[in-house]
Amino acid sequence: MAVQTVASSTDSVNLGPAAALSCRECGHRVPLGPVFACEECFGPLEIAYDFSGYDAEELRKRIEAGPANIWRYAPLLPVPADVADKPNLNPGWTKLVRADNLARELGVTGGLYVKDDSGNPTHSFKDRVVAQALEAARAFGFTTLSCSSTGNLAGAVGAAAARAGFRSCVFIPHDLEQGKIVMAAIYGGDLVGIEGNYDDVNRFCSELIGDPAGEGWGFVNVNLRPYYAEGSKTLAYEIAEQLGWRLPDQIVVPIASGSQLTKIDKGLQELIKLGLVEDRPYKIFGAQAEGCSPVSVAFKAGTDVVRPQKPDTIAKSLAIGNPADGPYVLDIARRTGGAVEDVTDAEIVDAIKLLARTEGIFAETAGGVTVGVTRKLIENGVLDPAKTTVVLNTGDGLKTLDAVAGTGVTATIRPNLDSFREAGLG
Ligand SMILES: *Cc1c(COP(=O)(O)O)cnc(C)c1O
Q1: Which residue, 37, 40, 75, 226, has most beta carbons within 10 Å?
Q2: pTM listed for this prediction
């Protein structure tokens, strides 16, 4: 693996409690740097922390006194202690909505919540992960931010780069939703459409990293992936803190590459180990669209092998046919007693409308996937309606308007009362 960094030395890298990179497969450790695969076994690298010296009560107080964004959890993230003073988009601390109307529709009696990440600066959960990658890029001396994206990531990178004074050049499949394309282009960086699907885009970016053309570039989800991925832990921290420092019984999480789901589990485990929450069982459920369901298919088949698929679904933000973290998602779903399930495009649209009509939350297709899967898992008796359940909405419906095309005015009338009465609305 070519280690390319423009910093003169990474010896002095200060990323807070991040101590090293460690291989998820063989445990081999290497110093912090812009690398993502183990030199011994090619397994994925992840951040190893030094959390020694933390006292649970002090840490909880420090977090509660922190800013209303992800940086309240800086002591648990790979970022310098003064991160909140640097120019970034300060995402996070989004609403945990108690969804009683939706609960009634679905028959949930144990408390149903929607963690609504459409409230982030670029209207998706991706601002959380990009914020971590940005700090790593600063630490390693990169000046250009890049990514392979299914849409939301491109916007999050463009915005973060604009704010922090980086150049950005991001890559997307050419056929994305207009809302995602505009969101990715508006911040002034370069946006490149690739003739192919996300897996083609990702393969291209891997080639670019090894080429002089990509030298000095921080690809947030490739060579900065170990740092990027940690941002998803903040969803776990926030959910637990917003529930009063308590673990939910069940969480329903969308799966694209599977990174978010695995890091939510990592975050919950850390909270237990640090003594911030009581250690009690929780179940993690993964949600996919039927048109891109490699992890769900493997789960149901009872295998560890995730067979790549060619995606064909309206849930484009989740359309990764060869999910890097698929096997780890299977492990977590099985270990916690959860499951992985999928829903059709029609069920996704129904679920978007259901969430909007019951809770006033307009989710993007990924939110339709989690709500749809939640409904299906309850109907199938897999998800326990008597338990506290958190469903993630990771993006904003305004970015995927095509999915609900046909939703519109109840009636068009002339501007007079007769016409209004004729329409049967008075
Ligand atoms: C990227 C994304 C996800 C999850 O991505 P992972 O690759 O599984 O971490 C979920 N929802 C939306 C809207 C996304 O854009």
Answers
A1: 226
A2: 0.95
Residues 212, 272, single domain; the answer is: no
Nearest CA-CA partner of 340 in 330, 327, 353: 330
**Residue with CA at minimum distance from ligand 1 atom 14:** 317
Ligand 1 centre distance from Cα of residue 217 (Å)? 22
Q: Quick check: is 355 in a domain? A: yes
Mutation probe of ligand 1 site: the residue of 122, 123, 126 with most atoms within 8 A of C-beta = 126
CATH number at residue 393: 3.40.50.1100
pLDDT in tens, 197-226: 998 999 999 999 989 999 889 999 999 999
CA dihedral 421, 422, 424, 426 (to 10 degrees): 0
Q: Which atom of ligand 1 is nearest to the CA of 257?
A: 7
Determine the distance separating the centroid of ligand 1 and the alpha carbon of 48, expressed in angstroms. Answer: 23
What number does the ligand 1 atom closest to the CA of 253 have? Answer: 10
Q: Of the ranges 29-38, 156-165, 303-312, 417-426, which one carries the lowest mean pLDDT score?
A: 417-426
Ligand 1 contacts (CB < 6 A) are 124-126, 152, 254-260, 317-318, 364, 366, 394-395
Please state, in angstroms and rounded to a whole number, the distance separating the CA atoms of residues 205 and 207. Answer: 5
CA 334 to chain centre: 21
317 CA: nearest ligand 1 atom: 15
Which residue's CA is the nearest one to ligand 1's atom 5? 256
Which range marks the domain in which residue 308 is found?
A: 95-123+230-404
**CB-based contact 132:228 (threshold 8 Å):** yes
**Nearby residues of 241 by Cβ (< 8 Å), 6 or more positions away:** 63, 64
Which residues does residue 192 pair with via DSSP β-bridges, in sequence order? 171
195 and 341 inside one domain: no
Instruction: Look up residue 143 and give its two tokens.
Output: 């000046």
Domain boundary among 180, 208, 228: 228
Residue 118 shares a structural domain with residue 25: no
Residue that terminates a domain, selected from 196, 211, 228: 228
Are the C-beta atoms of 284 and 265 separated by less than 8 Å?
yes
What are the start-end ranges of the E strands in 29-88? 29-30, 45-49
- Per the structure, how many domains does the chain have? 2
